[in-house]
Amino acid sequence: MAKKKKTFRFNRIKIFVLIGVLVYASLTFFNQQTILASQISRQEELNAKQEELEKEIDYYKNELDYIGSDEYIEKQARERLGWLKPGDKKYVEQENSSPSSDPQASDEPSAGE
Q1: How much is the pTM?
Q2: What is the C-alpha to C-alpha distance for residues 22 and 32, in angstroms, rounded to an integer?
Q3: End-to-end distance of the chain based on CA atoms, in angstroms?
Q4: pLDDT tens column, 1-42
Q5: DSSP run (H or E) holding 68
Q6: What is the three-class DSSP state of 100?
Q7: Relative to the CA of 10, which of 26, 61, 67, 93 has its CA 20 to 30 Å away?
Q8: CA 78 to each of CA 11, 20, 71, 81, 82: distance values in angstroms, whole numbers, following the listed order
Q9: What is the C-alpha separation between 109 and 103, in angstroms, rounded?
């Protein structure tokens, strides 16, 4: 009978060790799943940011190409420097002063007259 109890005790220890290993494996698995989910989310955010930055790079490459073009240089020369092509006429817009703000433009005589 002593042998039977020893075998039973040995099997009991195996069962507790097995349960401990299973609990540890389960906790580790769920912990890894949580970490994996957060990493996947972070990866998606980074992919979206990368696409946004690639679009921005394309925009600036196109802008740089445009800045180096003759069309851009001509536009800037006309706008900033007032340059004209032969045959162009330049119109200068004068500031309009409203009649009520200009005392000399008023039809009513002033008090001193």
Answers
A1: 0.49
A2: 15
A3: 139
A4: 455 666 667 788 999 999 999 999 999 999 999 999 999 999
A5: none
A6: coil
A7: 26
A8: 95, 82, 11, 6, 5
A9: 10
